[in-house]
Write a structure and sequence with these properties.
The protein contains 17 helices and 14 strands. The chain has 437 residues and is of the alpha/beta class. The protein folds into 3 domains: 151 residues, Nitrogenase molybdenum iron protein domain (Rossmann fold, 3-Layer(aba) Sandwich); 207 residues, Nitrogenase molybdenum iron protein domain (Rossmann fold), CATH 3.40.50.1980; 37 residues, no CATH class. The strands form 3 sheets. A 6-stranded parallel beta sheet has the order 1-11-10-9-12-13, with helices on both faces. A 5-stranded parallel beta sheet has the order 6-5-4-7-8, with helices on both faces. α6 links the parallel β4 and β5. The longest helix has 19 residues. The N and C termini lie far apart (84 Å).
Length: 437
């Protein structure tokens, strides 16, 4: 079910290579198909959106129902229970409290020579959130609404749009609509997949364009974001979910097994890895996975994921485990160690770190506060979790006094001429001449 592999070894290297090749957007045939969808939306607008939505989601969707109405939102809010709303609002407060620390402010600096420098921080005008339908709309991804909308709202975005595929009858799950209403989403469009991303990026009569697109989705969403990057800002090109657990003697095998399965059930391409210093613990984790697997509704998906991209690596010491984790740069990293804080400073590459046996990755998915939109497929080496910065743009401000200009002009001219840019140099030199010259 899940292999126990000594590390380092040739067998371990083969498994690591297989895991590293789970890159998003590696299928040129599929990429061409997504390109064609984007071009159809570019040339046909709403007609293309309606055609694709009818083909894949809601066969009888009427054009006038492509956007969620206020009446639909009001009905949804009346249908959800008060207990759900209490949970939703608590989660939202936690996420707000965390992301509020990321807020930036414009800043300016005046030097004694009269130079005036600064940076203006502004939100983008409009942001688009991709929210997957979740099994035909029956498993609404409420947490994704919160994680994407909260930082956008805190950043000051004035137009927050959400796309989500409709259910077969053309409706949207009421819990999803209620969550969007609570968090301040301004408009909701019943389109998904690559055509929804294209609509947000390019704009149609029914879907005004946005400046930034964020949020999760399937391979079609990932490829659409990849192709349209540059025409619109994107957060990241996300791949399949992944978890890496580092454990030593004394860790609870049942907890670790449950956490590995929590990612394996996502997708057959998901990766669930444990690195441990204890051979006996490795065997106990494997047995615990077998026991827990039978109770999972998505056990077929989890089993395929574990067989292809899951493993328990047995290493000599925690230092080796940390080194391997930094090499893999996982989306989620759990530390089931006796003294986890002593090792935290050694973690260089991870989307998010979960410390201790009472911190399963699921608390980060839903409730704790940090964002659950995280870099995958090794991108944690250079990328970060979604945050307020993804909805901000920074504009530099430069103003030179005559004194500062005269001081720096020779240096600027020299650098411009070395680069072969004579007009650049002349734009400085002309200001050195006397008015009579």
């Amino acid at each position: 079910m899940i292999q126990i592999i000594p590390y380092p070894s040739e067998r371990a290297e083969r498994k690591l290579l297989a895991i590293s090749r789970r890159k998003p957007g590696a299928d040129p045939v599929l990429e061409e198909r997504v390109f064609q969808i984007i071009e159809a939306v570019r040339s046909e607008g709403d007609e293309a959106l309606l055609r694709y939505t009818r083909e894949f989601d809601a066969p009888a969707l009427a054009p006038e129902r492509m956007n969620v109405s206020q009446a639909e939102i009001d009905i949804a809010c009346s249908e959800v229970d008060s207990g759900f709303l209490r949970i939703l609002r608590t989660a939202m407060r936690n996420i707000e409290d965390f992301h509020r620390q990321q807020l930036r402010h414009s800043h300016f600096l005046t030097k004694p020579d009269g130079t005036f420098l600064g940076q203006i921080i502004r939100p983008v005008r409009a942001a688009g959130l991709c929210i997957p339908g979740g099994q035909g709309g029956e498993t609404p991804l409420i947490s994704s609404v919160l994680m994407n909308a909260v930082p956008a709202r805190l950043a000051g975005v004035c137009d927050i749009a959400m796309i989500t595929p409709p259910r077969r009858d053309g409706s949207v799950n009421p819990y999803l609509l209620a969550a969007a209403h609570e968090v301040g989403v301004d408009r909701i469009h019943k389109v998904g997949s690559a055509w929804g991303v294209a609509a947000l990026a390019l704009g149609t009569p029914s879907v005004p364009p946005v400046d930034v697109i964020v949020g999760p989705g399937n391979i079609y969403v990932a490829l659409a974001k990849k192709i349209l990057s540059g025409e619109v800002g994107i957060d990241m090109i996300a791949g399949p979910s992944e978890i890496l657990v580092i454990a030593e003697s004394g860790a609870k095998p049942a907890y670790i097994a449950a956490d590995l399965l929590s990612q394996a059930e996502h997708d057959i391409m998901a990766s669930a890895i444990c690195i441990t210093t204890d051979k006996n613990l490795a065997k106990e984790i494997s047995l615990a996975i077998g026991k827990q697997m039978g109770a999972l509704p998505r056990q077929e998906t989890a089993l395929s994921s574990l067989e292809r991209y899951g493993a328990i690596f047995v290493v000599e010491d925690v230092s080796t485990a940390i080194g391997l984790a930094n090499y893999m740069a996982p989306e989620h990293l759990e530390l089931h160690l006796q003294e986890p804080l002593t090792w935290l400073g050694k973690i260089e590459n991870a989307g998010a770190v979960f410390i201790g046996e009472h911190t399963p990755e699921a608390v980060g998915d839903y409730f704790a506060g940090p964002n659950h939109v995280l870099p995958t497929a090794g991108a944690a080496r250079f990328a970060s979790a979604l945050g307020v910065d993804d909805f901000l743009k920074k504009t530099s401000v430069v103003a030179y006094s005559r004194e500062a200009f005269d001081r720096d002009a020779p240096s600027i001219i020299r650098l411009a001429e070395l680069e072969g840019l004579k007009a650049h140099a002349e734009s400085v030199r002309i200001r050195q001449r006397k008015p009579s010259d």
